[in-house]
Design goal:
By secondary structure, this protein is an alpha/beta fold. It has one domain: Dinitrogenase iron-molybdenum cofactor biosynthesis domain (Nucleotidyltransferase, domain 5), CATH 3.30.420.130. It contains 3 helices and 5 strands, in the order E-E-E-H-E-H-E-H. This is Dinitrogenase iron-molybdenum cofactor biosynthesis domain-containing protein.
Amino acid sequence: MHRIAVGTEGEGGLDDVVSHRFGRAPKITIVDVDDDGKVVNVRVLDNPGASASGGAVVKAIQVLVNEGADAVVGPAFGPNAQAILEEMKVVNLTVPEGTKVREAVEAAVRELRSRS
C-alpha cells in the first residue's frame, strides 16, 4: 500500500487539480493506493501552510509526515523542500500544475513501482 499526498487547488479529491505551489496549496489530498494501484481511500485536509506568514512548505511537509505519506506530488519542489522530504524519506515526484489528482496519483504509483 502507498499513501500519496497532493497539494490541491480546490476542495480536494481525485477530480481536483494539482496546485502550482505545494506549500501554499489550499488543501492536501491524501490518497491511499493498494498494491494493485487501486485507490482505496481519499481524504482532504486543510493545508496549514496555505495561510502561514512564513515556513509554509515546512508546515505542509509536517502534515505529510504526520499522515505517513510515502510520496508527495507537485509541479516543483524547491531545494529546502527537497532536502526536508529526503530527510523524512518521502519521495517527491513532479507533474505539471493543473494535472488532475487522479492522473498525478497514477503517475506516482508508476514511479514508486519502478523504484521498488
